[in-house]
User: Fold these one by one.
Assistant:
Number 1:
Amino acid sequence: MTAIEVDEYAVQIGRNVLEGLPDLVKGAAQVAVIFAGPVRAHADAAIATLERAGARVLPIEVPDAEAGKDLSVAASCWDALGAAAFTRSDAVVGVGGGAVTDLAGFVAACWLRGVRLVTIPTSLLGMVDAAVGGKTGINTAAGKNLVGAFYPPAGVLCDLGTLDTLPADDLLAGLAEVVKCGFIADPAILTLIESDPAAALDPRGAVLPELVERSVAVKARVVSEDLREGGLREILNYGHTLGHAIERREQYRWKHGHAVSVGLVFAAALGRLSGRLDPAVAARHREVLQRLGLPVTYPAEAWPDLHAAMRVDKKARGATLRFVVLDGLAQPGTLAGPSDELLLEAYREVAAG
Ligand SMILES: NC(=O)c1ccc[n+]([C@@H]2O[C@H](COP(=O)([O-])OP(=O)(O)OC[C@H]3O[C@@H](n4cnc5c(N)ncnc54)[C@H](O)[C@@H]3O)[C@@H](O)[C@H]2O)c1
Ligand SMILES: O=C(O)C(=O)C[C@@H](O)[C@H](O)[C@H](O)COP(=O)(O)O
Ligand SMILES: [Zn+2]
């Protein structure tokens, strides 16, 4: 088992890490376990571990994926906590993909203004990104993740064994965030993937655990320095300005990682076209994502919708759009207020049809 420290908590990565759960909720008379249907077996394992340790467990099943990141679902969780008379010494555990851990984190952050939270990510994306770092939230009609709180967990348990049941397309989605970490901070990630893309996609192989550990290390370093996204943390949003706009336009039928993949190619084009990024490094984005089988194009006619949707990006300041771009490999920077012409030119590089 590997433990990576983030401020005051640890991300435990390995097989059978659930053993650490009772310690993380010590002192809680009740523990709510929030999960969605596809991970019931993994939630049951967490529940059994808690019950063996003497905790009273309140299982809360929520709608799967983005359907769960909704105010009505959060409200139903708070109703359940209220009915069980949850107090400040109790705890919330989120078991599932990034959507469930984002929701569970938001529920925990708001209940009594904050009760203990433990995240147990069961998707690759959850392990390397969503469950780590304290961003919690839900979607609203106006856009993705627009309501939420910075609320770090007391601990994160990444049981690599759960990846054995993750659908292949969801594993692939997680690799988009892994590739992102490679470009913004740890190019060894890119070399590992490029030398054997199939190995990177094998949940039982030796490459994926290393990719998980390297990506968590990147995220841990960044959020330990800048939890509330005053500056440095924005680099974790590389590829997300366009990515979130695609997700919203698709009404969340596209996977987050797939949308981020297109967003990464767009961001690389922005970097190159603004004269900041070497063409070879820009081209490497498309190459590595394509070799994995991630999407790198989106319909040409979508541009006006996407351009409008990007206005609600959290990095925007007033009418000024701001993008994370690269000045070189592992050298992220900010591009503020690019012209509409430059944005369209960059979009042409991902536009299909
Ligand atoms: N808070 C953050 O910092 C942060 C970072 C990145 C992404 N996110 C959010 O995370 C979400 C995407 O996360 P995701 O890619 O995990 O998608 P997801 O949560 O929608 O999960 C994808 C699918 O896989 C299923 N699943 C998860 N683990 C499984 C397992 N072990 N076995 C079988 N099925 C399993 C889920 O139930 C779901 O059907 C988005 O909402 C995104 O905005 C948040
Ligand atoms: O942790 C962060 O910070 C990130 O930006 C990580 C992203 O991968 C993640 O998708 C995050 O939820 C996006 O945050 P948002 O603030 O743009 O909603
Ligand atoms: Zn993301």
Number 2:
Amino acid sequence: MEDAHISSDLVRVILTEDQINQRLAEIAAQIDEEYRDKDVLLVGVLTGAVMVMADLSRAMTIHCSMDWMAISSYGSGTQSSGVVRILKDLNTDISGRHVLVVEDIIDTGLTLSYLVSNLRSREPASVEIMTMFRKPEAAENAVDVKWVGFDLPNEFVVGYGLDYAGKYRNLTSVATLAPHVYS
Ligand SMILES: O=P(O)(O)OC[C@H]1O[C@H](OP(=O)(O)OP(=O)(O)O)[C@H](O)[C@@H]1O
Ligand SMILES: Nc1nc2[nH]cnc2c(=O)[nH]1
């Protein structure tokens, strides 16, 4: 029977819970300031963004509303293609609204560039992006991200919403996985 504790599958902690919370507090203060006189709608992208949405919104002190989208990219394996299918659309009409997309990670940037152009076609007052993590490849696709929690190196990590085979999202830190996990 494999060890049920997440910690036994980890090799190296890349970001601690404290580092994540500290950075979130900084970003939340900037978002508070940016939307002080505006009615902001946070749009979380399921599933990975659940953690950042919960923690970011509670670190904010201004009012906000929340909605969710679920999307699936038509990729081959782990490769993102940029062609995106909406599995669950917003419940909210965003026309004239100030929208802040909340993501866990931007890797190639293809998902977000599709999502943002889709949202813009609905004529919101503004669309901005906050992502907790960003990979180096994102620079190649010009997605204008206003708030980035952390730039990560090009290695596979899990935790704080990021999964491997559906697991590890509930890890409070971000870490690399031991080789035995993949075998
Ligand atoms: O920048 P890209 O290369 O397009 O990749 C980024 C997308 O990948 C992740 O979602 P994922 O498909 O893993 O779904 P999940 O949140 O349900 O894990 C992430 O939440 C983004 O939506
Ligand atoms: N879980 C996970 N998903 C990713 N998508 C792009 N990079 C990563 C990563 O490092 N971990």
Number 3:
Amino acid sequence: MAVYTQVSAEAMAALLHAYGLGTLISAKGIAEGVENSNYLVEASAGRFILTLYEKRVDAGDLPFFLALLDHCADRGLPVPRALRDRDGRQVQSLCGRPACLIEFLPGVSLTTPSAGQARAAGEALGALHAALADFARERPNTLGPDGWRALAARCGAGLDAIAPGLAARVARELDFLAAHWPADLPRAVIHADLFPDNVLMLGDRVTGMIDFYFACSEIRAWDLAVTHSAWSFSGDGTDFDPAIGAALVAGYAARFGLSAAERAALPVLARGAALRFTLTRAWDWLNTPADALVTRKDPLAFLRRLDRYAAQGETLFA
Ligand SMILES: Nc1ncnc2c1ncn2[C@@H]1O[C@H](COP(=O)(O)OP(=O)(O)OP(=O)(O)O)[C@@H](O)[C@H]1O
Ligand SMILES: N[C@@H](CCO)C(=O)O
């Protein structure tokens, strides 16, 4: 369960007062997620998400993320804004953490999406890219190709403790990606983490895209590769569903467009995506605080994807 910081009812009531949102009815820690502390807050004025930013989110990046949410919401996308308090502030300090009160969006995240739902997710990613085409701010991808070697080094011998031979496998992949990473594809601000748990749906309709805290300037098609790696496999990475992968890519291409060069690069970009999540999950596996009530995510679920993309990349995007 991702509640690293406990917020008292008194502090939440004071926060709601600062936003003019009436009185506190209830507040529950949200089990999903691993990065931040999230609460579902019921107030007399409605339902909200309270997020306290932990570990990976740098407070200095919050203006970028919040401007991005406003930009997308202004363009009609189902993206939650951070509310403003009576003084116009979007970021608060709560229990020593930066915190935001965020619009609640309806919908549920899927564990086994259908092809129709995957197509809708691809279209939603395309709509997001269309909306972000004129978003002028930039943020480097701290978890992109330039950072993977350093992250692997920080995991060190821990990689082999997770799975014997993992350090050497990662080193080989880093060399492969350094030699084959595409240089000339279009870049833009992307979501960079559009996993099924970050897409809220009602039936075949996308009602929310959330968790933009890895958004960054990157090769745009990498976002599609990340989404493909997250959606098209069983959770443990053992089974690939070609219908889901094809529907995602088709939905994206229909809504935003995908050039021949981008399409051709997807197998390599997907290897990069699978390596990114193998490494960040490995780091979290090795460094999750003992007192955190959080379920660690299995790095090997993305190593399996990596091996599959490495062995059959072209086929998985055929
Ligand atoms: N705006 C929102 N509207 C409705 N539910 C939300 C909203 N934001 C977050 N949630 C709920 O809270 C859960 C955790 O949120 P989120 O994914 O942002 O957390 P996180 O710790 O940053 O997670 P992750 O591990 O995906 O990085 C979501 O799965 C969803 O159920
Ligand atoms: N979506 C990521 C967590 C955030 O980086 C994962 O499942 O590993």
